[in-house]
Design a protein that fits this description.
mainly alpha; Hypothetical protein af1432; three-stranded antiparallel sheet; three-stranded mixed sheet; single chain; 7% strand; RNA endonuclease activity; Ribosomal Protein S8, Chain: A, domain 1; 4 domains
């Protein structure tokens, strides 16, 4: 029994010693592991610091480069600004010199007028003195003395007076002519509008001849669909790697050009894709028109124009008159009118705004009845433009009386812009007017969807609404359109009238 107790006690003591020993061993191992982790952490921190330092150095280098580039650009802009400022100062000095010269001439003219008045007064005094002496010496009656005196004075002074009056009149005319030339010259110097001649065709270059076949399509299906949707004529001839889009309407021609470029880039040319790309081009051209209107107002520094009027103004970018771009012509008229108004002391903002909007009616003259002046008046009234501006713009073709100085200025500015050499091409405008007249004749008939003049006016294609015009009426309409063309227009050769009726039904299987 004692032996068992002793054994138990010994085992217990051994167990306790083992537990204590195990505890210290575990503590030792834990400290070693902690030391290892701490070393790794220190190493990682050190590595991170080095990477951060390197990144900071790189960032500082890039920042220094950016600052240096920005400083160079600022210096360049400053030099350009100083140069422009110097040019402005030089022009201002030149203008001041001219004004001073004119003022000097005006003073000289006034002095000459005063001298002439003095001469007249002296002559009158001499006449009275001579009359008195004649009555005393010759015992002449008052009437006889008067006759003698008039004959004497007339002989002695007529030539001198006439010469003086002629010199004064010529001096005044010369001064006015010089001033007028200065005003017009200054107006033209301030006007820096780029002008381009708009043609009725656009050439599209192709990467290879194979694309022509894809544009034409099987049995001409693609090209017929394209011409029908866009209202243009696609000319494909032996000219290598190119096709020509012909249309007198610049907007339709631009839409067709953009759509065809999209189709060529996409590679899939088929009727469904043609409709899709034409619709995309119409949306893009609408944005281009709005951007053109906004840019014009920004360049002209004109504010307070409603968005819809901005859109209408932008349409002039694709409108020509006698070959002259109407939007560029309107900007030119606005600048010239502003300069003339400033020189003669008229209302320059009114003159400039009226000059810019004087042809606004041409943006919608193909969609509304009436002259472009009447249409322009309606547009400006609708969008809340002031009466002064409407009165100033409506008289530029003589349809309305000129009831303000600004109206006369707009007439002069319009004439200057239109009459300069090379500004307009009469033959192109007449050609475009003939094509428009063809379309107008067709559009008069009821049930017409749209009409396009193609082949340089040798053919007109008319699309009718299938739900309003049946097949029998199509034949009758073609004959009536041809008869009206023969009656209303003069033209060489013959004009082909093609009336197209299409009935399209679309259903979806779901």
């Amino acid at each position: 029994m004692d032996q068992i107790i002793i054994t138990f006690i010994g085992a217990t003591v051994a167990l306790i010693i083992g537990c204590i020993t195990g505890y210290y061993v575990r503590q030792s191992l834990a400290k070693k592991r902690a030391g290892s982790l701490e070393a790794k952490l220190v190493k990682k921190v050190q590595q991170t610091k080095e990477e951060t330092t390197e990144l900071l150095k790189t960032s500082e280098t890039k920042a220094a480069q950016i600052i240096e580039a920005a400083q160079k650009e600022i210096d360049q802009r400053r030099r350009e600004f100083l140069k422009a400022q110097q040019v402005l100062l030089d022009r201002e000095k030149l203008l001041e010199t001219k004004i001073a010269g004119f003022d000097k001439k005006e003073v000289e003219l006034e002095e000459k007028v005063e001298k002439l008045k003095t001469v007249k007064e002296n002559l009158e005094a001499l006449r009275q003195e001579a009359e008195t002496k004649l009555e005393k010496v010759a015992s002449l009656s008052r009437e006889d003395a008067k006759k003698e005196l008039l004959v004497l004075v007339e002989k002695d002074s007529e030539k001198d007076i006439l010469e003086r009056i002629k010199k004064l009149e010529q001096s005044g005319q010369d001064a006015l002519a010089v001033k007028a030339r200065e005003i017009v010259t200054l107006a033209i110097q301030k006007c820096a509008i780029n002008h381009t001649l708009e043609l009725s065709t656009t050439t599209i270059h192709l990467a290879s001849e194979d694309i022509k076949g894809r544009i034409i399509g099987k049995e001409g299906r693609n090209i017929k669909t394209f011409e029908k949707i866009t209202g243009v004529e696609v000319l494909i001839d032996d000219t290598p790697d190119s096709v020509v889009i012909s249309c007198f309407n610049p907007v339709r021609r631009q839409i067709a050009t953009m759509a065809l470029n999209k189709l060529i880039q996409d590679g899939r040319i088929q009727p469904a894709k043609i409709e899709e790309k034409v619709e995309e081009a119409k949306q893009e051209i609408s944005k281009v028109i709005k951007d053109a209107g906004e840019k014009t107002l920004y360049d002209m520094n004109i504010l307070g124009v409603q968005d819809k009027l901005v859109q209408i103004l932008g349409r002039l970018y694709y409108r020509t008159s006698y070959g002259q771009n109407v939007l560029q012509h309107s900007m030119e008229v606005a600048l010239i009118a502003e300069t003339i108004a400033e020189e003669i002391g008229a209302n320059a903002p009114i003159a400039k705004r009226a000059g810019l909007f004087h042809d606004i009616g041409k943006a919608l003259d193909q969609q509304m009845e009436g002259s472009h002046i009447e249409i322009g008046i309606k547009i400006l009234e609708k969008f809340g433009e002031k009466e002064e501006i409407i009165h100033a713009m409506r008289a530029h073709h003589g349809d309305y009386p000129v009831d303000s100085v600004e109206g006369a200025i707009v007439i002069v500015a319009d004439s200057i812009s239109a009459s300069r050499p090379g500004a307009r091409k009469d033959s192109i405008e007449n050609y475009l007017q003939r094509l428009k007249a063809l379309e107008d004749i067709a559009n008069k008939f009821e049930g017409i969807d749209r009409a396009y003049a193609i082949q340089a006016g040798r053919e007109i294609r008319v699309f009718v609404k299938a739900d309003k015009v049946d097949d029998l009426a199509v034949q009758k309409m073609a004959r009536q359109i041809a008869a009206n063309i023969e009656e209303e227009l003069k033209y060489p050769g013959e004009i082909k009238v093609t009336v197209i009726r299409e009935n399209r039904v679309v259903e979806y299987a779901r």
